[in-house]
């Protein structure tokens, strides 16, 4: 894997072809959606290269690859393009050998995808609450809603009596959920886990996972990026 490079902005030359035997990830180092794909690449040990994109000043060649202008995007040596985080992750799991992250049983796979749909309703709170706080609004009701949603995920772990959401080892759904939990401290939302002990234990176990260790940033680093992002001048290359 080539080390992450500084982000490429508008006016930068388009990267050359993807090397044979590799796959390319277009990413942004602090994007939680792109982190999902980085987690899967790491967990499966897939040979890849990463090209980081300046999402404020997107290069034209990047918009040709994904007109939505979002990361993550995968590009194969044959020039095929895959985007949207769950789709890129499913693709990697299906195409590459090694540890399988999606269950082989169709019902279990469907259950993980339904759980991901439920989780997609949680994600907006990680954005809404900090914005409301910055605007000086009372966030009690919003935090109450987030607590309620997180308690449902806690209940799932209690009922299943497993360490992770798909069983006693990490599967795809855990990686799909993780990036926002990694940012909870930075977003000042960790207190919303006060009444979800099983979810808190899940977080502790996730922190011990090699793929999580390889892809994550410390709360301090997240805080520096987040401050720059809120100020409207995101420092995509912080720490490089």
Give an overview of the whole structure.
- It catalyses: RX + glutathione = an S-substituted glutathione + a halide anion + H(+); L-dehydroascorbate + 2 glutathione = glutathione disulfide + L-ascorbate; methylarsonate + 2 glutathione + H(+) = methylarsonous acid + glutathione disulfide + H2O.
- Belongs to the GST superfamily. Omega family.
- This is Glutathione S-transferase omega.
- Residues 105-230 form the GST C-terminal domain.
- Helix 1 runs parallel beside helix 3 (85-95) and helix 1 (32-44) crosses helix 7.
- Strand 1, helix 1 and strand 2 form a beta-alpha-beta unit.
- The chain is 48% helix and 7% strand.
- The radius of gyration is 18 Å and the shape is globular.
- The chain is α+β, with helices and mostly antiparallel strands.
- It folds into two domains: 1-101 and 232-240, Glutaredoxin (3-Layer(aba) Sandwich); 106-208, Up-down Bundle (Glutathione S-transferase Yfyf (Class Pi), Chain A, domain 2).
Helix and strand topology:
Layout (H helix, E strand, L loop, with lengths): L22 E5 L4 H13 L3 E5 L7 H6 L7 E3 L5 E3 L1 H11 L10 H15 L4 H10 L5 H21 L11 H11 L14 H11 L2 H6 L3 H12 L10
